[in-house]
Design a protein that fits this description.
The chain is built from five helices and no strands. The protein is an all-alpha fold. The protein folds into two domains: about 140 residues, Helix Hairpins (Orthogonal Bundle), CATH 1.10.287; about 55 residues. It is rod-shaped and about 175 Å long.
């Protein structure tokens, strides 16, 4: 089972690798970065809103604290120490709330500054990634186009390969048909097959054509024999003429002494 799972994952990974387009992956990554940047900006806005809300509460508490302080002064001026003490007690409670809110406000302000700085850095990274993404996409597109052009010229692309195979099949079929047509013509000419088209020659005409072809061969053979026999006859005549001349000379030489003796 473990082996089957590994094989399945390997095949799935290979299929995904073939289906993956780097340009789409880059666009998807850029979109995710934009979404993250949007979340950071939304966080900065939320922190700023909370900080602003605390500032409003602080202003209200400070206003109430100032009002209670003024009431305590008036109570003391009127000789109502009890009222002045109550006003100061309430003012002390508000002052504690103001202190707590000021601490929260300071914390939120620090978080807001951190998030703002992070958003600025993330924005710079996203801008740089966008520039890099467009450069890579342009380079990939150019390389892809160049590769397709090279494959088309070399004939190794899938489309050109299909065209080449189609041409090869067409040439093979054409050669096969030509060979079959030639074989049929030879069989018809030899009489092995009957021509039912109505244009075939009868057996007499076929025999006349065969004899006519043989006559041409015989005529050529007789001409070659005549040439050879003509050269041989000339040589034989020359030899025979020489023999006759030598015979006459011998006869004359034998008759000469006989003539002298008679005298």
């Amino acid at each position: 089972m473990k082996r089957m799972g590994m094989i399945f994952r390997a095949k799935a990974n290979k299929a995904l690798d073939r289906a993956e387009d780097p340009r789409e992956t880059l666009d998807y990554s850029y979109q995710k970065q934009l979404e993250l940047l949007q979340k950071v900006r939304r966080g900065v806005a939320d922190v700023a809103t909370s900080r602003k809300r605390l500032e409003l509460q602080l202003n209200q508490l400070r206003s109430q604290s100032g009002k209670l302080e003024e009431q305590g002064r008036k109570a003391l001026a009127l000789g109502r120490e009890d009222l002045a003490r109550e006003a100061l007690s309430r003012r002390a409670a508000l002052q504690q709330q103001v202190t707590d809110l000021e601490t929260q406000h300071s914390t939120l302000q620090g978080e807001e500054e951190k998030l703002t700085l992070a958003a600025q850095r993330l924005q710079a990274k996203v801008d740089a990634f966008r520039t890099r993404k467009e450069t890579i996409k342009a380079t990939y597109t150019a390389a892809q186009a160049q590769t397709r052009i090279g494959e088309a010229f070399s004939g190794i692309s899938e489309e050109m390969g299909d065209v080449g195979l189609a041409i090869q099949r067409a040439e093979d079929k054409t050669a096969q048909l030509q060979a079959r047509a030639g074989a049929i013509d030879e069989l018809l000419a030899s009489g092995a097959l009957d021509d039912h088209s109505g244009l075939a020659k009868d057996d007499i005409q076929a025999e006349l054509d065969r004899l006519s072809g043989g006559t041409d061969v015989e005529l050529e053979l007789q001409r070659m024999k005549a040439e050879l026999s003509g050269g041989t006859s000339a040589q034989q005549q020359a030899i025979e003429g020489g023999q006759q001349a030598s015979g006459q000379d011998r006869a004359q030489s034998q008759e000469a002494p006989r003539f002298h003796k008679e005298q």
